[in-house]
Amino acid sequence: MSELINCPSCDNPTSINAIACPNCGDPVSEDWIKQKSKVKTKLTKKHVLLIIIIFAVIFSFFLSTLDRPTATEKAEKTAQNKIKGFHCLNEWSGAHPDVVKNVEYQMKDPDSFEHIETKITPVDKSGSHQLYMKYRAKNSFGGMVIGLATATITNSDCSAIILSIE
């Protein structure tokens, strides 16, 4: 499909590839050539959408590379988390899995257990962490109470020694 321009003489729509106007017979002149150069390519909706998608992909790629930590930064963060004891805690709930199992095992209604929060101290000279876990559960009368479990966690293998469950 060829683009149309208006004939400079009779203003009749004419193909830009025509040698002369089919209506008035006016031959190609400089006015025609000037009008031909003014014809702009039409962008369809598909072209616009494709351009937007390409820019979005390029933009998201650059954003993802800006926020990506280096291997050294990852190793430093992992080492800091190990010193803080976070490597022993569940990433989702923040609880220590073995401490939760021990607390639930000693409950009359283990299904009522709800983890509230867990705090852990940095590793000490003996290679251990102190852990304090606050939880909510039903007591013998069916009422919800808040309890506290304390434990010592070994930094190397994350094993737990329960000190108390209240």
Number of helices: 4
Query: Main sheet, how many strands, which sense, barrel?
Result: 4 strands, antiparallel
| Beta-strand share of residues | 15-25%
Spatial strand sequence of the major β-sheet: 3-4-5-6
Written overview of the protein:
The protein is of the alpha+beta class. Helix content is about 35%, strand content about 25%. Strand 4 (about 130-140) and strand 5 (about 145-155) form a beta hairpin. The longest helix is centred in the middle third of the chain and has 23 residues, at about 45-65. The N and C termini lie far apart (about 85 Å). The mean pLDDT is about 85.
Show the helix and strand layout.
Elements: E1 4-6, E2 13-15, H1 30-38, H2 45-67, H3 71-84, H4 97-105, E3 114-120, E4 128-138, E5 144-154, E6 160-165
Antiparallel strand pairs: 1-2, 3-4, 4-5, 5-6
Describe, in short, the structure shown.
The protein has 166 residues and is of the alpha+beta class. Helix content is 33%, strand content 25%.
Keywords for this structure?
4 helices
